[in-house]
Amino acid sequence: MIRFEKVSKTYPGQxxxxxxxxxxxxxxxxxxxxxxxxxxxxxxxxRLVLREARPTAGRVxxxxxxxxxxxxxxxxxxxxxIGTVFQDFRLLPNKTVNENVxxxxxxxxxxxxxxxxxxxxxxxxxxLEGKGDRMPDELSGGEQQRVAIARAFVNRPMILIADExxxxxxxxxxxxxxxxxxxxxxxGTTVVMATHDHGVVDQMRKRVVExxxxxVVRDQAQGGYGFSH
Length: 229
Ligand SMILES: Nc1ncnc2c1ncn2[C@@H]1O[C@H](COP(=O)(O)OP(=O)(O)OP(=O)(O)O)[C@@H](O)[C@H]1O
Hints:
Blueprint: E1 2-9, E2 19-26, E3 31-35, H1 42-49, E4 57-62, E5 65-66, H2 75-80, E6 82-86, H3 97-106, H4 112-125, H5 141-153, E7 159-163, H6 171-186, E8 190-194, H7 198-204, E9 207-212, E10 215-220
Parallel strand pairs: 3-8, 3-9, 6-7, 7-8
Antiparallel strand pairs: 1-2, 1-4, 4-5, 9-10
Helix pairs in contact: 3-4, 3-5, 4-5, 5-6
The protein binds adenosine-5'-triphosphate (ATP).
Adenosine-5'-triphosphate binds next to helix 1.
């Protein structure tokens, strides 16, 4: 579903590479943690998948297509197939929960009847039934992240990318968010999550890809945050 083939990325004006000769293959339906110190290249790897950054060398494939060769007008279609969730939620502050989730469907031209059907379904899936009329600032951090996940998942993308989704949440709330991401993964969605959160990685026991100074130093099935046998 996602394939990095000897990918390097050096940002203009930077002396060192953000990623260096990275090869990773993520199958459809996998759940992968991307771990590593700050600056090790995790966000850069995620940005390459979205074609928000382009590789300096090597190839990035998403669903069999080399996305660096994708025509510019096809990039929005690529991004539509990839839901994104971030540490800071990024909700629209002046819209209700319903409107935040509906917006993701409206911008891709879904009919009003489909929006009316799918939004409540998705809010129920993320455990926010009955909260559709709230404003984001009337929700806890964990609930806001659930809205962000609902918005990312509402059009059933093939891939969900999460960059530090538990970074602003306490451990108990993080467990709930991870259960939700796990549930989404079980629907067949490929999940790639960059994180510093030892607790969630150790608890979930999924594949762990560790970056250090832009290089893959570990790729372990059912791994923990740190290396163990
Ligand atoms: N837009 C940019 N322009 C120049 N250099 C950048 C840019 N984005 C990232 N870098 C550099 O690339 C390297 C990798 O950064 P990246 O953000 O991918 O790391 P990260 O592992 O996601 O870190 P963090 O955990 O702090 O988010 C760092 O040296 C960083 O300074």
